[in-house]
Write a structure and sequence with these properties.
The structure holds two protein chains of two kinds. Chain A is α/β, with parallel strands linked by helices. Helix content of chain A is 33%, strand content 17%. Chain A has helices at residues 7-10, 22-37, 98-118, 136-148, and strands at 56-57, 67-71, 76-78, 81-84, 125-130, 153-160. Chain B is α/β, with parallel strands linked by helices. Chain B has a domain at 79-183. In chain B, a hairpin with a 5-residue loop joins β6 and β7 (172-174). The chains are: A alpha/beta, B alpha/beta. Chains A and B meet through α2, β1, α4 and β6 of A and α1, β1 and α4 of B. β6 (153-160) of chain A pairs antiparallel with β1 (43-49) of chain B.
Chain lengths: 162, 185
Amino acid sequence: MAFRPSKSKKNLQKEQGELNMKSMMDMMTIILLFLLKSFSTEGALVTPSEELRLPVSMQIEKPKKEINVSVSKSMILVNDQVVVPSVSDIPKDMMLITPLASKLAEFANQERQLEIDVGKEFTHQINIQGDEAIPFEILFKVMFTCSKTDFYKMRLVTISKG
Amino acid sequence: MAFKPSQRSQSEDIQMDLDIRPVMNLMVVLIPLLISCAEWVKISVIEINVPPSKGPSSGGEDEDAQQDEMKEQEKRLGLKIAVVHEGITIGKAATLLEGEEGEGPTITRKEDGKYDYEKLREKLIEIKKLIAGKGFKDEDRAVLTASADIEYQVIIDIMDNIQTYENDKKEIVPLFPQVNFGSIL
């Protein structure tokens, strides 16, 4: 025999629960404010990797988007293109890094051409991103090469601690 | 004739909840957008300006000779900071500042093997105070040089420490802001 449907259940008034959104709104507002504070429109200038860990400094000056020379633990790149595949192959007795110099000279010529064609000023600026563990010798050679190829305003990119 | 009493007091207040769903929708869209644009690591740069290398077109020999003569007449300090494995040496163009024991680098490494940047700073502030107002043309310039295998982080740390300092009046003033690089010959 089937049971009779429950009468009490049928007449039970269903209570409609409402989600309290106010606290959620508070939270969202705070997150929004925090994120607005760290908002940056410049985009990523550097791509961190195991090979390229930037040194830490206390400087506060902001970087600008310029030609990037990255000196990682093993190779040298110009604007993400590998120029020197192995840092250890650089001859010890030569100050100028020849492949880097020719690549930079290419960029310098491009910039100069742009200055003539469209009036974009050649700033002579270059960003150098070096790994924190690269030896001074390599850094010095890279800087020497940059200054020889008309990029004499160098900017050493670091992670700001302050 | 008096006006009829207002019916307003008798009208029932309708309690209406603000519809916050559209705001919530907006937030849900805005937050991922802002997260993607947030900068988590603050990047900064250290400026190094070296004089442009002389191209074949710039100036004749006479001009160069004249410039060299001018340079010789100027009073120059020629401060050098050399980093070697044993420590940091401060020097002038031809002379070196000796360490406390009479030999070796001016500032030896600390006991834990780290370079003693505080001491370097103190010495440089001392030098800066001595040369202030004496008319040296390169009183803001220091040439930094290091052994071939000194790490980049050490160079950056030194540059952090030699560019500015806090004077007695708690003002931040330049120490040797123009840093040039040299190599040990």
